[in-house]
Amino acid sequence: MGMELLRRLPAVHRLLDHPVCRDLIEEHSHPLVSRLAGDVIGDLRTAILAGEDREADLMPDRLAAEVAKRVHAQFQPHYRPVINATGVVLHTNLGRAPLADAAVEAIVRTARGYTNLELNLATGERGSRYDHVESLICELTGAEAALVVNNNAAAVFLVLGEMAKGKKVIISRGQLVEIGGSFRVSEVMRASGAELVEVGTTNKTHEYDYERAIDEDTGLILRVHTSNFRVVGFTHQPPLSDLVALAHERNVPVYEDLGSGSLIDLRAYGIGDEPTIGESVRAGVDIVSFSGDKLLGSAQAGIIVGKQEYIKRIKKNQLTRALRVDKFTLAALEATLMLYRDEEKAKRDVPTIGMLLRTQESLAPEAQRLRNLLADVFGERAEVQVEAGLSQVGGGSLPTEELPTWHVTVRTRLFSLNELEHHLRHVDMPVMTTMQKEALHFDVRTIFPREIEVVAASVRDAYGRIG
Ligand SMILES: *Cc1c(COP(=O)(O)O)cnc(C)c1O
User: Alpha helices of 238-304 — where are they, by DSSP H?
Assistant: First the structure.
């Protein structure tokens, strides 16, 4: 029986004569289709030799369909858009900040052809790839000088390595944080060759704690914004300006790792307690670093700003070259930063900022629209409601902040919501949802208005796949 099946396996050139395969060759190329057709036949031969009854798979139509499937799979990218219905605005697993249209266009423009990346068009001479974006950063933060590297983790490593190698760095015990992906301030410090000097306690650190710790080997006072957790209750940290005054009196520079770093004062909109980057600069902090793709809402980058003398030193560090950012990042950063020249524009066009600032009231019509569409999908088979909920900022930013929002919820006993959630991750446009108390939740805050219909289509598709 096995031998009989083996005899019926077609030769590759015969399989390629099938109309489906001919179309594939037309669209792609002979070598590719031929190789995959060979794989299909080879795999089937192996299965038959292993004793499997694969007679049905020998049908020419079945074989050709399998070839088509494999050809198409060759061009299915792994990185795909997904819809974020989790309500976590800066979702690291979902790529953190979605870019402003202007930033996307800038990347495309820069990518398609050649650019003046390191050319000064006015003089025709070689220029620095960073000049323009750095002056924009200085303009927006009030800093004397700026530098852009690969991400903020790299920025921390670079600043410590340049400013405090072989020296002591004083840090409050309450700020020895671990950022997602096991990035620990204490480990980075060790790796950069700086010696960690912890002062104060987990909840309280006083100015005199710093004062007593400063000696001739002190290279830096480091302040780390505790971006992903909060110590509440009986707590104390000296005001930034007092710390700066003390440090400068003793000739020690202050470096603040702001983590998120916002250019807009979100407190003015009732969100969080995050100081702006400009405030740190104005308080006299010598070096400040922050991420490009957290609250700033742009591309992944680490931005370092501060006093000219220090930034100059850091730029000369060999590591800076290794941490260089590419032209796409610079294009996206420039386009995003330009929007911040007009706060109204930033609020409207930088998706991260827009999503954070949307009021619950403004989200209601979209929630209602999605509810109606999903009610249509499920008919009598599920209960679809709009319920008040809370969104999160995410990305290790403003950890305790909860933004009132509307959730569209799905409840049912007639089919498995876990199965629906599973299929929602496998449809053409995956939708990331959350399961809370036996209901599937869609937070409309992080769904772009243009995606509401797409979410409904994905749900319809996923629902159709439930066995
Ligand atoms: C997020 C964060 C970092 C790391 O920034 P990346 O841009 O993700 O590398 C470093 N320090 C703090 C305080 C952070 O919040």
Answer: 240-249, 277-282
